[in-house]
TrEMBL record:
Gene Ontology biological process terms, A to Z: DNA-mediated transformation
Domain DprA winged helix, first and last residues per copy: 304-358
Domain Smf/DprA SLOG residues, every copy: 82-289
Protein name: DNA processing protein
Family of this protein: Belongs to the DprA/Smf family.
Gene3D superfamilies linked: 3.40.50.450, Winged helix-like DNA-binding domain superfamily/Winged helix DNA-binding domain (1.10.10.10)
Domain of life according to the entry: Bacteria
InterPro entries found in the cross-reference section: DprA (IPR003488), DprA_WH (IPR041614), DrpA_SLOG (IPR057666), WH-like_DNA-bd_sf (IPR036388)
Organism annotation: Melghirimyces thermohalophilus
């Protein structure tokens, strides 16, 4: 009879095809011991509750050799499994009605138990959405909060980057295997998160993204967090799913108000109508959690103010959330267009502004 460590037995069982959350729940209720090989009598008893094909795969695959192979492969790939049997399992996530049996983590596991805020929103935000996301995420990270998002294009990426720029902490929860970079253009950001934050998934490594995994992923984003902040979202945005999970989990929901004429503010404005707290500054979030005092990044680690010239500062004063054309900048600043080009390029390199199509510019 084979025996092994319970936690790695659970991890290996989680990687057998057909064994999902409900199957593991049924196994535990049937008295399954993840630390030893089941007898033929136990396998036959399981067939009364679990499809026979799944039980057959368990009997065939869940062996000492397979479990050892899973353990070694995760170690080689620098993926750390965290199970419901572990002390490191995040307590906020453990409060959910259906907490993940296993989390796969690349990066700093301890971040999962930090004081977290979910920041989510549109995959195609406006310049306003990008700016408020970066501002609020940066300031929350600077206050010691861990920013949790989903590494998606748009608001998610902006939230992660802003937290990292503040030398703060951030977690990306994936809708695919923790070793699968999605979207592909976030490869550099993914690498940075692995080294300076954490990347997490509840599906086995190697799992490719598909639509059904993202709502499932969203409950973890909200489940790790004391609250969810939606910075910009359309009426049927996926980020609203995260907000609704947050409500179901008894957590706070915050929403950034936007123009009533903007399609990308309909979701956030509706959340406010439904009772979400409107957010104008980080203090609006912090005042809901007076009992939480996370440690901010050490002052020596905080980013210094970017130096700009007098001419660059003059242009920055003209740049707002709404795009402004190069000709308008020249008209309002009184600077020659040739000089403005040089200053704008310098400001882009410093990460303070962004160029849009049609010779238009916005502040970041």
């Amino acid at each position: 009879m084979g025996e092994w460590e319970e936690r790695i037995g659970l991890v290996a069982m989680h990687q057998i095809r057909g064994v999902g959350w409900h199957t593991l729940d049924k196994l535990r209720r049937l008295g399954w011991d993840p630390g030893r090989q089941p007898t033929d009598a136990e396998l036959n008893r399981w067939k009364r509750e679990i499809p026979g094909g799944t039980v057959a795969r368990i009997g065939e695959r869940w062996t000492a050799d397979f479990i050892d192979k899973v353990d070694k492969e995760l170690a080689v790939r620098q993926i750390q499994p965290v199970t419901l049997l572990d002390e490191e399992y995040p307590p906020m996530l453990g409060q959910l009605p259906q907490p993940p049996w296993v989390l796969y983590v690349r990066g700093e596991v301890s971040l999962l138990s930090e004081t977290c805020l979910a920041v989510v929103g549109s995959r195609k935000p406006t310049s306003y959405g990008r700016r408020v996301t970066r501002q609020l995420s940066r300031e929350m990270a600077a206050r010691g909060w861990t920013v949790v998002s989903g590494l998606a294009t748009g608001v998610d990426g902006e939230a992660h980057r802003a937290a990292l720029e503040a030398k703060g902490k951030t977690i990306a929860v994936m809708g695919c295997g923790v070793d699968v970079v999605y979207p592909r253009h976030h490869r550099d950001l993914y690498k940075k998160l692995v080294h300076e934050g954490a990347v997490v998934s509840e599906v086995p490594p190697g799992t490719e993204p598909h639509p059904g995994l993202f709502p499932q992923r969203n409950r973890i984003i909200s489940g790790l967090s004391y609250g969810t902040l939606v910075t910009e979202a359309a009426e049927k945005s996926g980020s609203l799913i995260t907000a609704h999970y947050s409500l179901e989990q008894g957590r706070e929901v915050f929403s950034v108000p936007g123009l009533i004429t903007s399609a990308l503010s309909r979701g956030t404005n509706q959340l406010i109508q439904q009772g979400a707290k409107p957010i104008l500054q980080v203090e609006d979030i912090l005042e809901e959690f007076p009992y939480l005092k996370p440690d901010p990044p050490r002052e020596s680690e905080s980013p210094g103010k970017v130096a700009v010239s007098e001419a660059e500062d003059q242009l920055l004063a003209l740049l707002k959330e709404e795009p402004i054309h190069l000709d308008q900048l020249a008209e309002h600043s009184g600077q020659p267009v040739t000089e403005i080009h040089q200053h704008l390029l310098s400001l882009q390199v410093k990460g303070l502004i962004r160029q849009l199509p049609g010779a238009q510019f916005v502040r970041v």
